[in-house]
C-alpha cells in the first residue's frame, strides 16, 4: 500500500493525463455539479453528526387492558400494575389482557384479546428486579421471569407457563400475521 504522502502526487499525475483533463475542460457544468453535490453531502453528514439527537416528547399511555375473570369483561387500569389485580367483581380477579387489532383505529369488531397474563408472587418480584436493572437485564433474569409468568387464551380455563411449549405457542399465535399479511397492533385504552 502506498503511503499517504504520495497520494497528492498520484492525484496530480492522474489529472495531468490528457484524456481526463480534456473531459474536465469539455464538461465544466458536470464537474461543478459533482463538486456541489459532494460538498453538500459532506455538509449534511457533518451537521447530522454535530447536532445532538433529541428524542420527541411522547406522552406515554399508562393505561392497560385487564380482564375480569369473573365477568369475562375488559376494564382499563394503570399499566404499571402487575396481575393478578383487584377487579370490579372481586379481589385478584383481574389479569392483564393483550388486546390487538390489525387496523390503526379499530371498531369493536376489529379488536380481539390475543392472550391473558398473570404472574406468581415470585414473578412479581422479578418484575421489580428487572425494572431496577433497567438496561442491565440479563437473559437469566428474563428466563426466571418467564418461569413465573402464566399465559392463557381468553376462553380457556387452563394457564400455561410462558416458558412452556403451550405458553410459547400462545405467544407465537398472538404475533402472527393475518391472511392479508398484516401484523397485529397493540390496542391501548383511550386516555380520558
Q: How would you characterize the overall build of this protein?
A:
With 192 residues, the protein is α+β, with helices and mostly antiparallel strands. It has two domains: 47 residues; 124 residues, no CATH class. Strands 1, 2, 3, 4, 5, 6, 7 and 8 form an eight-stranded antiparallel β-sheet that branches. Strand 3 and strand 4 form a beta hairpin. The longest helix is centred in the first third of the chain and has 23 residues.
What secondary-structure arrangement, pairings included, does this model have?
Layout: H1 7-16, H2 18-26, H3 28-50, E1 63-68, E2 73-78, E3 85-87, E4 90-101, E5 111-119, H4 121-133, H5 139-146, E6 149-152, E7 160-161, H6 165-174, E8 185-186
Antiparallel strand pairs: 1-2, 1-4, 3-4, 4-5, 4-8, 5-6, 6-7
Number of domain modules: 2
**Category from helices, strands and their pairing:** alpha+beta
Secondary structure tally, helices: 6
Specify the overall morphology: elongated
Order of helices and strands: HHHEEEEEHHEEHE
Rg (C-alpha, Å): 29 Å
Largest sheet: 8 strands, antiparallel
Oligomerization state: single chain
Low-confidence stretches: none
Total number of strands: 8
- Beginning-to-end CA distance, first to last residue: 67 Å
Mean pLDDT comes to 87
> What percent strand?
15-25%
Helix content: 25-40%
